[in-house]
Amino acid sequence: MLRLPTDGPATGPLLDDVLAREGAAAIVAAIARALPPLAARLAAGRLHGDPEAIVGTNDSGDRQKALDVAAHDHMIAALRAAGVRQVLSEEALDIILLNDGGAFDVAIDPIDGSGSIGIGAPLGMLFSILPADPQGFQRTGRAVVAAGYASFGHSVDFGWSTGAGVHVATWDAEAHAFRVSRQNLRLKPQASTIAYNASNERHWAPGLQAWARDLRAGRDGPRGRDFNMRWLAAAVGELHRILLKGGAFLYPADARPGYGDGRLRLIYECVPIAFLIEQAGGRATDGHGPILDRVPRGPHDFTPLFFGASEEIDALQAALQG
């Protein structure tokens, strides 16, 4: 590894020494331990085969790539070994029973942003953990007791919360372990960087289009200040950046066929994001109320999603409702 003049020994406690060995924290630790082989396969690109090869379709009709399915199978094996009762995954139509007497259920998106497989753009994983209950996943996000994400970029980062703040660990290749690199992340209430797909703006509700026009006008418009724009096309990449640097993200419903309820999945994409964002002092909404208060209509329910700095999310919600 290249050493910088200011470098010293790796610092930060090992993740395995920080997380409890029981309860939901033990499931969080098991997910983290499963990440290095997945990260290594991502880093290998096409050296051993094509990770983008189409091998099927998921419940949305989205094409499944070889890496999507392999990541799903890999994580199912890890969660089974960790004693999880059942799993809801983006890559499976039905809920998967693993251990009848398990104490926890897990909702997971094994590879977020898979449209960017093979081009070096950020990819990730999202998950949430719920106590086992007869309702299964048909509960609001307020039932979640832990959530997290993996960000596969130039570093492999693992963010998590067990209900006591948001923390991030980074993979230390020399130690072959994750080290805690950031603790108790907090979002500033005001955003200076906004992430959305501007190509869809013409399909948005009128109030939201007006919000975007005011935003782009910068210091010469009614907002009176300039904003930066970002769009990574991977919710995990946006989540990781916003947790570290601040800002806001939106993927609203729009007038296109199939987008009237947004396009992100409520249970295994938006709920983990909302849990983490609220733990960091931000807000996450569907445009009408908190994501964590929504009752799913089905296991693969769609929802609009707005998350990040509290003041900007309030402004977005007011624009939608005005």
UniProtKB/TrEMBL annotation:
How is the cofactor bound, in the record's words? Binds 2 magnesium ions per subunit.
Q: What is its main location?
A: cytoplasm
GO BP of this protein: fructose 1,6-bisphosphate metabolic process; fructose 6-phosphate metabolic process; fructose metabolic process; gluconeogenesis; sucrose biosynthetic process
What enzyme category does the UniProt record give? hydrolase
Give any Pfam family that matches.
FBPase_C
Kindly state which keywords UniProt assigns to this record, in alphabetical order: Carbohydrate metabolism, Cytoplasm, Hydrolase, Magnesium, Metal-binding
Q: Name one GO molecular function term.
A: fructose 1,6-bisphosphate 1-phosphatase activity
In which pathway does this enzyme or protein participate? Carbohydrate biosynthesis; Calvin cycle
Q: What Gene Ontology cellular component terms go with this record?
A: cytosol
Is Magnesium set as a keyword in this record?
Answer: yes
Lipid biosynthesis listed as a keyword = no
Where found, per UniProt? Cytoplasm
Q: Which reaction does it catalyse?
A: beta-D-fructose 1,6-bisphosphate + H2O = beta-D-fructose 6-phosphate + phosphate
According to the entry, every stretch annotated as the Fructose-1-6-bisphosphatase class I N-terminal domain falls at: 57-179
Domain Fructose-1-6-bisphosphatase class 1 C-terminal per the UniProt entry, residue ranges: 188-320
Cofactor(s) required for function per UniProt: Mg(2+)
Question: Which residues take part in binding Mg(2+) 2?
Answer: 109, 112, 269
Q: Where does substrate bind?
A: 197
| Binding sites annotated in the UniProt record for Mg(2+) 1 | 90, 109, 111
Source superkingdom: Bacteria
User: What's the EC number here?
Assistant: 3.1.3.11
| Record note on quaternary structure | Homotetramer.
Similarity comment text for this entry? Belongs to the FBPase class 1 family.
Q: What is the protein's given name?
A: Fructose-1,6-bisphosphatase class 1
